[in-house]
Amino acid sequence: MDKLVITVTCDTTLTYPHNPNGPKPDNPTGVAEEYVRAINAGASICHVHGSYVSDTEIQPDGRLLQIPIMDGWAEITERIRGTGGAVVQFGLASIRLEQKIELWQKLKPDMSSINFDSHDEYFQPAPEHPPAGYCYSIHPISELREYARLANENGVKLEIECFSTGAFWAIEKVRAGEFWVGDRREDELGLLPDPLWGTLFFGWPGQSWTPPSAKGIQFMVDHLPDNMNWSMSCMAPEVYWSVIAHGIAIGGHVRVGMEDCPYIEKGVYAQSNAELVERAVRIAKEVGREIASPEEARQITGLSA
User: Fold this and answer.
1) Run of H or E including 243
2) Measured between alpha carbons, how far is 48 from 9 in angstroms, rounded to an integer?
3) pLDDT of 193-237, one tens digit each?
4) Which of 73, 172, 186, 229 is 20 to 30 A from 18 via CA?
């Protein structure tokens, strides 16, 4: 069994906006400090949302997404790199493709996320309030093809977000390299270099929801594409730590942090993202699993040979 790769994601704005301890994207220095603490606690991959604002209404392109603020992203990225070898993984797969490319070209992340399902997430952690955020976007095969090609051209490895097994179908379509543009077939192979790195999402609200349970995990794992290493994310506070523990025990890697679940135990907010990383480390040690260093994480994810 590989050593455990822990990804940390610190932004809680869209998912748990009432969390009193969550760093906000308009405070890049505070966000960066959270990542540094999390790395010191045992995280080897930083899933970065950077600084951003959100569309306030559906735009002409039919989407309601996030808009990056370059200076904040740069500050956070530089602070993470200053800690040593932690993997910089740009998140917010809901950013428009052209803006994501600008981030790649200016800041050179190791990895970047793309949702191979659709963005129809419905965050409502506090029932007495309206939903905290929507992500309205589909990702057709034509877009995934372009995204993969541009990632390769810019030396960025994809973190493939998989909310359901439909994402696995999309992976195989892009891997096959057979595309139709109108009535014309185009072939383009090698868009998804092996090994793939995928994150499986459990309990995230929306129409791509997969159950946050041992059976839900096993179903996804049983149908993984070939040559794909997997991490997992859960957004279901009532079962969060048991689901994370199950993933660790069966050999998966995990993503923790205030975006996914800000609670260190039932009803108790963690004081920092590092506290959540520390709990994942303790769980791993209790089942006899070592923690991957950033250098080892690069090997496991396929970033280095």
Assistant:
1) helix 240-249
2) 6
3) 999 999 999 999 888 899 999 999 999 999 999 999 999 999 999
4) 73
